[in-house]
Amino acid sequence: MLSFRVRNLLSRVRRRTKKNIRNRNTRKLRNQNCISIAKELPCLVEEEEDTEEGFRIKSSAPSHNHGVQPLGNLYLNPGSINSRDTGLGNLHILTDELVLEILGFLDGTSLGVLATASKSFYVFTNHEPLWKNLVLDNLLGGFRYNGSWKSTYVASCYPSFHISSSALQSFKVRDFYSDYLFQSWLCANLEMKPEWLERDNIVRKKGISVEEFVLNFEEPNKPVLLEGCLDNWDALRNWDRDYLLQLCGDVKFSVGPVEMKLGDYFGYSDQVREERPLYLFDPKFVEKVPKLGSEYEVPVYFQEDLFVVLGNERPDYRWIIIGPAGSGSSFHVDPNSTSAWNAVIKGSKKWVLFPPDVIPPGVHPSPDGAEVASPVSIIEWFMNFYGATKIWKKKPIECICKAGEVIFVPNGWWHLVINLEESIAITQNYVSRRNLLDVLNFLQRPNASTLVSGTRDRVNLYDKFKNAIEASFPGTIDELTQKEEEKKIQQRKLSFWDSATDAKVGAFKFSF
Asked: pTM for the whole thing?
């Protein structure tokens, strides 16, 4: 009977994970740095010394993750036996990812019972993301974080059962080696390395005209960091925790897959130490709290927004963003081929951007663009892939955007963002004449229904938008199309003369 249930679970895992196979293959890359991290985990944490790779653990990190060590430590300790394998029995041949996929089908009670089967199952069943999914799936937004996801689940579902988060984390297993589980803990507790923050090669401008912005940045589709254009925002002066808590009261905001009150979210963000912290990212914040919308205004550089012709049918375009240090967005391209601006009100953010023709290392988009496989977390990307960009000919554009500053993200650019401290920001996506044709082409793609986001009507958005533009701005699309054709012709001409002219000596060269 048991073997039948296991086979059934495996079958369900295969079906559920088939579409994510690229993600699983990518996640295997998380193992490559674990071997050289630290020989002894307690020393790594308690002494807070840099390792040979320059990693530093946060002072608030737990002393251990049930004793899990990187697999390389097993090779450095001859005679040791991996209790991970002995405790799993015949299941030891499965990868850690597959073991966790199977455990993800179990409820809290079943995980608790299975934890008593062996020390190995104890470690696996206490993997925090398992309990995080249980909380988010079953309790929705109706919970208060209690130091760990397991403790939160137990406190919410069994309030009479008194147990502290520290008690749930106190048991340590000897000789348990797993790169996957260790790096999950490591990514949750690493400080950002100074060398990850030192490169700042974005163009910075203050007080430029709209014409200069359009000519030098929007037209050529180049990022820029703008200073001083938020100085008149009430939000810049008012938006701190106390003000927002008083203003928003019991209003619930979108936090990942759930809705949470702001007070409950701050309670979570103060305590959490995890690889991918939940991010408050709400597209309806103005509708929920109108005063929030009145305390900021769109910077003058971005006030042409042609999606406005759709009225209430326009896709989601503005968000309030709040998150603790370590939260953020892994590499992505903004939806619907729009451009964007992001204004930091409190805190600071590290940005890494690649142009449309350069796919970031470790990122694997599907041919149709519908899916993107990437490292599990932002910290993992920095650990495993950031160093490679130092020798790239086309290096990424990077910066730290601080309170009062705005970054312009051109359409099609890949970008990653991580909060360096608790941060509050406003971002908006928009369509101007400079990227109107790009947006229309995107909305007209054969698989647009799977790519378009932020709207209920994905199928008819192209027709609605094009018709609305032609009604509001007659002849604009034809005019922009003609200019685009002229630009392509001019580029072809330049390409010919570039091949025929020797720029170094100023003379013709013949290559017939």
From this structure: 0.85
